[in-house]
Amino acid sequence: MSIIPKTIDVVVPVFNESGNIEALFAAIHREITGKFKMINLIIIDDGSSDNTSEVVIENINKFPQLNVVFIRFTRNYGKEIAVKCGIDHSESDLCVIMDGDLQHPPKCILEADHAMQKNDANLVYISPVKREKRFYQKMGTSGYRKILNFLSKEKVYLTDFTLMDRKAVAIVQQFNESDFYTRGILSIVGLKTFEISYVPNSRFDGKTKFSFFKLLNLAINGIISVSTRPLRLAIYLGITVSLVSMLFGIFLVIEKIRYGQEIAGFATLGFGLFFFAGVQLLFIGLIGEYVGKTYIQTKNRPLYTIDFIKKLNE
Ligand code: UDP
Ligand code: MG
């Protein structure tokens, strides 16, 4: 295969992945070195508490064929922000985002580039065909995808493995929101998109960094960052409940007039009270989320803080 006449940045966020770094470098070297005009590996250490940073620096010396930009955060900011930092530092013709645990096979990047050319796309999503997942993830993913696609006007793809062209990168670089969510932003800016699939490997070393609650928080963040439609839903729900309860009230008055029947049903009353107290709390929480995000955003803080940047092997 001839060399693709383009430069590419491979952005990899890592958090406590010391056991995966060497295999990651090796896989990238084995599968894509020499296939592009130039390859830059942009690794973001998202404030690891293990020796990930030392292992990265060690491997930079072991693989002198790879150009590496190594950025370490002062603390853990979460994967989305680490990805944003990687994109901010991307200057090549192409930029691909991939995980550091070898679940994403680097050779798919070549296929994605081919699809990008052929379909004249700005973005190629590389989606997993099947994945060994925990039960709640499996149940959650399809439902979540439906909710997300309903709430956002555009389709949101649920994969992190994404190839972007220069135009897509330049657009993402302009977004500086505190709840940065890559997929959400890529879905709303009207870029030409194509999707290919890959069979994910299982994690090379260590465990997933996303616990149930971290996933749940990410899911809620995803929804809130792409849309304000949940607020509109609250209005509709409020209108519906008010109408239904008004009809119920009229029914009770008629019952009383016609049959003189006492209003019975402590259980109904109790249930209604608690149920709607719950619904109200939920929506107050929801409004609070939007208000909180507005508050954080108005402070205009930097999205991430960098401990150091090392550019090596260039
Ligand atoms: N990651 C990160 N910051 C975090 C959590 C995860 O940079 O706070 C990185 C992690 O090191 C990995 C990628 O994000 O390279 C995907 O994480 P993981 O494999 O745990 O997620 P999963 O594949 O289970 O969705
Ligand atoms: Mg993984």
Give the ligands present: uridine-5'-diphosphate, magnesium ion
User: Could you name the CATH class of the largest domain?
Assistant: Alpha Beta
Euclidean distance between termini CA atoms: 25 Å
- Beta-strand fraction estimate: 15-25%
Query: Using only CA atoms, what is the Rg?
Result: 25 Å
**Physical arrangement of strands within the biggest beta sheet:** 7-5-6-4-1-2-3-8
Contiguous helical run count: 10
Structural class determined from secondary elements: alpha/beta
How many domain modules? 2
What form results from the Cα inertia axes?
Answer: elongated
The CATH architecture of the largest domain comes to Alpha-Beta Complex
Mean pLDDT: 90
Describe the biggest sheet?
A: 8 strands, mixed
Low-confidence parts, pLDDT < 50 over ≥5 residues? none
Please report the total strand number as a whole number.
8
In CATH, the homologous superfamily of the largest domain goes by the name Spore Coat Polysaccharide Biosynthesis Protein SpsA, Chain A
At the third CATH level, what is the topology name of the largest domain?
Spore Coat Polysaccharide Biosynthesis Protein SpsA, Chain A
The percent of residues in helical segments reads 40-55%
SSE string, helices as H and strands as E: EHEHEHEHEHEHHEHHHE
Characterization of the model:
This protein is an alpha/beta fold. The protein folds into two domains: about 5-210 and about 305-310, Spore Coat Polysaccharide Biosynthesis Protein SpsA, Chain A, CATH 3.90.550.10; about 230-300. The protein is about 50% helix and about 20% strand. The protein is built from ten helices and eight strands. It has helices spanning about 20-30, 50-60, 80-90, 110-120, 135-150, 165-175, 180-190, 210-225, 230-260, 265-300, and strands at about 5-15, 35-45, 65-75, 95, 125-130, 160-165, 195-200, 305-310. Strands 7-5-6-4-1-2-3-8 form an eight-stranded mixed β-sheet, with helices on both faces. Helix 1 links the parallel strand 1 (about 5-15) and strand 2 (about 35-45). Helix 5 (about 135-150) runs parallel beside helix 8 (about 210-225). The longest helix has about 35 residues, at about 265-300. It is elongated, with a radius of gyration of 25 Å. The structure holds uridine-5'-diphosphate (UDP) and magnesium ion. Uridine-5'-diphosphate binds near residues 17, 78 and 79.
